[in-house]
Amino acid sequence: MSLSYLLADDHTTMLNIIEKILCHFESCFSRKAAFRWFVIIITGLMLRSDKLGVTSILRDLALAPGCYDSMLHFFRASSWSLEDIRKRWFSAVRLYAPLYKEGNFHVLVGDGVKQSKEGRRMPGVKKLFQESENSAKPEYMHGHMFGGLGILAGNFRSWACIPLSIRLHDGLQAAREWKGASVSTASHVVQMVEDSYHAALTFGDSLLLLDRYFLTVPALEKLRELNNSGKVHMEIVTKAKKSCTAFQKPGPRKPGRGRPPKKGDAVHLKGLFASHKEQFMETETELYGKKKTIRYYSIDLLWGQKLYQELRFVLVEMDGIQSILASTSLALDPLSIIRLYSYRFRIECTFRELKQQTGAFCYHFWSKHMPKLSYYQKKGEPTPLERVEDERSRKKILKTVRAIEVHMELSCIAMGILQTLSIRFIGKVCSSQIRYQRTPSKGRVSEAALMHYFRKHFFRLLEQKPKSYITQIIHELQEESEKHWDFLAS
Question: Is the pTM above the cut of 0.90?
Fold first, then answer.
């Protein structure tokens, strides 16, 4: 298969698309050197062949060893804003990615992700409970708690959940009163709604897909508050616990004194599977890429203690499994709610690719100013962050937190570029043309296959584009590397 065939596109080549997306961020940097490192790191994350820290970027791009310190400084630099990078990434995704829309709504997907960390001087590390049903994972672990947000792109045959942002959502509460600390006091579920709404300001009206953990009164109250601002509108599609209790609408007010009732009789949703069995409808639909026969029943009820917001509940039976889905939108039909919730799993696939391919969670940022974490800390004892009183130490720790979040955001950008390319090149190349696979993908080229292709052909692509901005930046640093080794040889 010729290289020209692999790069064939109606309007541009892979390298041109990458360069356009990266140059979209140039206005975020006041210094050319900072932007140059941004390009180098994103490119390196797309090519990295190992996950042994950021040194893999130097190895895969053949850069000088002296570049290591400058690269580390980039992650902690205060000359540019991480929030500006996030906003520009949202804008780049909207411009260059083939986003999926459900009617007039873009589809956002949010979830929490926990990463085990052994470093005792890493800020934000705390003891976390592991809810996963995977028996290979321990019940408790020490690590970081992130909130991840993505947006659906492609179509139902070749989905991709492009990562928009991954932020630390827990473990930093003690630092919220520090000078210069931008740490939210809200819970993980509320921060997820806030992050999603900030993304919706760029993409427009959106649907947010969340797991059952996020169906809480504070989350719905925050959603109502944000929607009342009138800028954009966002709805949530999620899953309810089987023990969920809702309420019927209040009946007519009885004559006499007293305030009108806010709710009617209680409804135990799990019991409806038996009591309303005859009202369930049966149909065949495509879920998770396969034709499935399902039975479902939809009902609008009030939910939330002292909130009593009307939600649309959809009770679903599939393959002997009973589930209860919920939507804040009463305009969505039951089958759309079922289908939309099935798309939520795509963010789990994105987390897997971020871990296994770009090594997003393989960071080692720590600070000697951080007190050592004790794995056997007793209840009531001050946390490591609570023991930090020196102003200089606090600033150093906050820079380390920033470095972690910068690494996560740059990894999201690198993965998003790979996913955008794989979707745009559907039908022009298949995985088996790039590398051997026992079970080739029938849809888009996987992120792993695309990274393998770039590692093999990237420098050849640079030679074909000598005037490319990426080519010039990498060649400059490679020339510095050659001078370094010539000096050592002499």
Answer: yes
